[in-house]
Structure formats: C-alpha cells, structure tokens
Amino acid sequence: MPEPCPRPTFLPQPWRAADLTRWTLAALLLGALFGLGMYSDAVFAAIDAGWGSLLRLLGMAGHAATIQQGVSGLVTKRSLVSVGTYSLLYTALCLLLLAVVLNSVRRLRQVLLIYGGVFAACAVLVLVGLVADAAWAYKLARRLIDFIVSPLPVIILVPLLRWYQPQPPVQS
Predict the structure, then answer these.
(1) What are the residue boundaries of the structural domains of the chain, listed by start?
(2) Residue 78: its pLDDT value, please?
(3) Among residues 162, 150, 154, which one has the least CA distance to residue 107?
(4) Residue 98: which H helix or E strand, with range?
(5) Are 100 and 29 in contact (CB under 8 A)?
(6) DSSP classification of residue 14
(7) Rounded-to-integer distance, Cα 137 and Cα 22, Å
(8) Other CB atoms within 10 Å distance of the CB of residue 5
(9) Which of 90, 87, 114 lies closest to 33, judged by CA?
(10) How far is CA 115 from CA 1, 35, 47, 131, 133, in A?
(11) Mean pLDDT, the chain, as a whole number?
(12) How far is Cα 113 from Cα 38, in angstroms, rounded to an integer?
C-alpha cells in the first residue's frame, strides 16, 4: 500500500505547544526588528556613546577617527564602527527570525549562504571602489547594504523557502 502524501505546508496544521512558543518568539523578534528600525537614530546614538566610552577606556579614541577617514561618504556618513555594529545587530535579529520561522537546518543553511553572498558582494564592491576610485561601486555597495539591513530579505525568503522548498519527507 503506498504511503500517504505529506500534508502541504500552506494548509492549516494542528497546533502544538512548540509551535505556539516558536510563533511567540517570532512575534517578539519581529517587534524587536520593528523597534530597531523605528528608533534607529536613538540606537545609533547609544551605539556611538558605547563605542566612544570603550575606545576612550582602551586609549584608542583617535584610532576610530583614523579608520573613518579612509571610508567614502558614499558608503556611510555615520561612524563606521557604529554602522557595523548596528548592521550586525539587525542582521543577527533577521537571521534569528528566519531560523525560528523556517524551522529547518537545511533552509537556514541556504539563508546563511544568501546573506553571506550579499555581504561578500558588498565587500568586493567597497574594495573595487577603494582601489579604482569608482563611485558606482560605492553606490552599489550602499544599495546592497541598505537591502540586507532591512526587513526585505526576510519578507522575500520566508515564503520562498517555506512554501516553495518544502521539508523532505520524514523517513520512518
């Protein structure tokens, strides 16, 4: 007798306590992302103050200004250290949200490859802009950074990986 087909993931599924916990965590992460985006100026001010205090404590306050001088204004007008910290925080929250919602190691591996590819492309474009003094490379890198540090990848990847790449059938 052939095995029954697994139930498609887009149809309603019976609820379990683990699902409720997972979706509650997803809602909290979504709220954190929303708050981080809405109050980004206050977050940047707090990050600037934190890094400033830490660098003064370590006696490296002038070092941050030296690093900032080598960065084109086409990439960022804020402190490079603060932008990096904010970007890592926002991206980490997005990756956590994707991990919770997708609930699959295989899908998360694909998400990490996509995010890693975009970050690598940004790094290559910034280096091209630096070496060749190419404004177009800086502008394109800025657009990619704006894309990856936004909710847009989450909005695209959740339906793409959840519904168009179903979980493999469970072997019993």
Answers:
(1) 19-163
(2) 75
(3) 162
(4) helix 80-102
(5) yes
(6) -
(7) 40
(8) 7
(9) 90
(10) 44, 22, 23, 24, 26
(11) 83
(12) 28
